[in-house]
Amino acid sequence: MPANVVVGTQWGDEGKGKVVDFLARDADIVVRSQGGNNAGHTVAIGDEVFKLYHLPCGILHPEKTSIIGSGMAVNPLRLFEEIQELVARGFDCKNLIISYHTSLIMPYHMLLDELEENRRAAKDSRGIIGTTKRGIGPTFSDKMARTGPKVGDLRNPARFRERVRYACEEKNALIEHLYNAPPVDPDAISDQYLEVGDKLRKYIGDATRAVIDGLEDGKRVLFEGAQGTLLDIDYGLSYPFLTSSHPVSGGACLGTGLAPNRIDRIYGVVKAYISRVGEGIFPTELHDDLCVQIRNRGNEYGTATGRPRRVGWLDLVLLKYAADINGLTDIVLTKVDILDELPEINVCVAYKMNGKKVFKLPSDPDALENIEPVYETFPGWLLNTDELATGDMLPENLMEFLSFISKFVNVPITLLGVGTRRRQMVELG
Ligand code: IMP
């Protein structure tokens, strides 16, 4: 049975929440396998808007199993609040499984995330990463250092307390002596986490088996990517302005324990323009009135942090890179309606580097310091696309725009997002 993956192809905020919600109609199990509550996925159902941070969008389809995989990091206090809010809105969340192996975001991880950003700012403002301050980097660092507590530890109070005490010896040395801040209290942290751990206990389980056995039993699995390819810790653009996990398609396998040959389709979500939150290189960034117009029309403000997003033209050099890294089989082009009123639309098709045109992303990060985007300009479609229901209703200028993108990256565009609502999705042949 199929296992399909949805990945962001840009710097996150491509509209994955809505795409996953749409594709989840044909899935029995929906999995989040990387990142944490640095993500914020928005889904609109009728007049109701849901903002999900840890929970997979499948949670809005009560008959489906929702899985938080081992590759994720969760803040159990925030996760429990998220569950409670959904329960209050009529979703029972009883089909949720949180892997034993999922990393716990601890209060000292969030504190260290903030303190380190402040330290970078004081040293050299160009060094600020602009993190979401959710503790993501410090949590995944501790996982790699093999000192971070895991969700499964919440079921064993003695072991949990011991792990927290041990970790706090090191963290407090840093907090007090490097950052000159007051230390944290390991016992108070343990009390608070174990209390919420008891409430989450019924959800803790074998996520890996649920996915593998589910597939063997004929169930259909959908992986919900968070963040985007260009934020990947190894393959993103540009270190250190990245997140600390693997938002690429390979991350779906690593974050659940599923073999790569079990994956069928890989949907790359592409926004019709591009945005970035936080610092780092952005070749097609706009700085004029158009930036403000697109930002406001597209509501480009962080779901997790409320920060205004940087906005720019669609960059096909980066998209081709994302298609290669992820092995995309399908493109879902989202937020097409945001460009409805523009008389002309630019798309970056190459970079000018030292007087030469380059069509593929150079792997030397230093080479990106001095590039100039080369644009192809398309006439706008100047028509409201938010009521389009079928592919044969597309205006000609939009068809040309789509056909150019698809040919450039050699991947078919199979879905089009034309609004925030569940029904505003056009299936293309
Ligand atoms: P962190 O993931 O909080 O460590 O932040 C690292 C970088 O990734 C920052 O530039 C964040 O703005 C960015 N980032 C993290 N999560 C998301 C997301 O879900 N959407 C967009 N950007 C994100």
Structural descriptors:
Adenylosuccinate Synthetase, Chain A, domain 3, 2 domains, 10-stranded mixed beta sheet, 5-stranded mixed beta sheet, 19 strands, globular, binds inosinic acid
Describe, in plain words, how this protein is organized in 3D.
The protein is of the alpha/beta class. 31% of the residues lie in helices and 21% in strands. The protein has two domains: 3-95 and 206-427, Adenylosuccinate Synthetase, subunit A, domain 3 (Adenylosuccinate Synthetase, Chain A, domain 3, Alpha-Beta Complex), CATH 3.90.170; 103-202, Adenylosuccinate Synthetase, subunit A, domain 2, CATH 1.10.300.10. The protein is built from eleven helices and 19 strands. It has a ten-stranded mixed beta sheet, with helices on both faces. Strands 12, 13, 15, 16 and 17 form a five-stranded mixed beta sheet that branches. Helix 3 (107-123) packs across helix 4 (136-145) and helix 5 (157-178) packs across helix 6 (186-200). The longest helix is centred in the middle third of the chain and has 22 residues, at 157-178. The protein is globular, with a radius of gyration of 22 Å. Inosinic acid (IMP) is lined by residues 11-13, 38-39, 129-132, 134, 136-137, 226-227, 231, 241, 243-244, 277-278.
